[in-house]
Design a protein that fits this description.
Blueprint: H1 3-15, H2 20-29, E1 39-44, E2 47-53, E3 58-63, H3 72-84, E4 89-94, H4 95-100, H5 102-118
Parallel strand pairs: 3-4
Antiparallel strand pairs: 1-2, 2-3
Amino acid sequence: MTVLQGRGHQARQLRGAMSLPEVKLWQVLRERPGGLKFRRQHPSGPYVADFYCHEARLVIEVDGEGHNRGDAPLSDERRDGWFAARGLLVLRIPAMTILNELDTAVAGIMATANEQIGED
């Protein structure tokens, strides 16, 4: 099995084990807001992005409490740098924001996506 095949398998597993905030966000993003297509648990190199919009070159990461602990902030920084080196913007959204303010989170995603598209 190649690394790419391994990431595809990992992405499929992650799709079946999405957190509640990821599920709530996917329920909105799958409807293609603003005509933009989003993918969930999208493999990219050594990583699997929570959500990805190719047209906007935008990676969306849903961050739970664990992202503030231990070596997670450094790991997230490396991950964000890897995506940035490939011309992708990473938008990190706290899981609690999605749970408590879904409309606000989606509005922020769409504003960021539209800014990204406008920069092309």
